[in-house]
Design a protein that fits this description.
This protein has 371 residues and is an alpha+beta fold. The protein has three domains: 168 residues, GAF domain (Beta-Lactamase, 2-Layer Sandwich); 64 residues, Single alpha-helices involved in coiled-coils or other helix-helix interfaces (Up-down Bundle), CATH 1.20.5.1930; 123 residues, 2-Layer Sandwich (Heat Shock Protein 90). The chain has a five-stranded antiparallel beta sheet with strand order 2-1-5-4-3, sandwiched between helices. The radius of gyration is 27 Å and the shape is elongated. The termini are far apart.
Amino acid sequence: MTSDRDEILQAVSSAVLAVTRHLSVREVLQVIVRSAQRLLDARYAALGVPDDDGSFAEFVAEGLTDKQWDAIGPLPRQHGMLGAMLRDGAPARLPDLRSDPRFEWWPKAHPVMKDFLGVPIRDGEQVIGIIFLANKRTAGGFTEADQELLTLFAAHAAIALTNARLYERGRELAMLEERNRMARELHDAVTQKLFSLRLTAQAAATMLHSAPDKAAAELERVQRLAGEALAELRAVIVELRPAELDRHGLAETLRKHVRMLDRLHPSDVTFECDELPPLDPEVEVALLRVAQEALHNAFRHAGAARISVRLAREGGRLALSVRDDGAGFVRDATRGLGLESMRDRAESVGGVLTVDSAAGDGTTVRVEVGV
């Protein structure tokens, strides 16, 4: 008995140490789920962090393939057993989840789950998440001892999750201060460059007829100053990349953005993504902004019923495509749709933007960039 207890405590200790080595909230959530799954020998494990809009701000799971996860669809809302656990803040251990009156339904592609164990993750009196396991691999389902073990683990996981949140908030504040500093420097540096540009252009204009050679030299200086100003602006834009990219990367940031738009708009908005290699920060910013601009155009101008966003690896290149089934447009009507801005962003990272559209036949915006 003492040996079994020591083994269990060692397992909890190892799992908690694995959690505390990670500081990003997303990483902490993933490690908590994996550790709980291994600790209690479950087929499925998941953890949800509620938001203020009746859904989940974060939801991670183990035991599902990416294909299954995509087929299931958007994040769950706070209904059924998950909603009951959030409201009651009490653990739940069931021999068959489907027979409980609090169970409501699953999406069509959701795997069948039978025996169920869920416990809240608390910060004081506040429930900051739910961790739950399903389909224990050993016969007999989850036991009372399993519930006690998962409750103990959840208490330690709460500390790690709270610590990760505090770390990220501190980092965000530091980043905000740095961005404000950079904005002041940008204002000073670019203002000086633009003032010099204006004076040099005025000088060139006055010498254009009386001293064309000197005017040409001044115009070369204008070109050089413009290039320097553009380079400084691009460098600062890269530094001012959205915090979500630092926290989640391009794929997850786009997935969250698409999921939010799908909830807010009547259009059916979907996202697909291949497994991505590490990307340069400049590429992530450029592709995110192109996708956001293309989606904005689709909602504002296309009247589309369906919009799809896809990130795909094709050989040594990464392709972003945003396709809608809306009204489309003819080439003469492209002004004002932000196409030049998207093209500039693509070209700034060595990419190529193409737009395929025809009146009444939808629009596809596509960017290809080497990775």
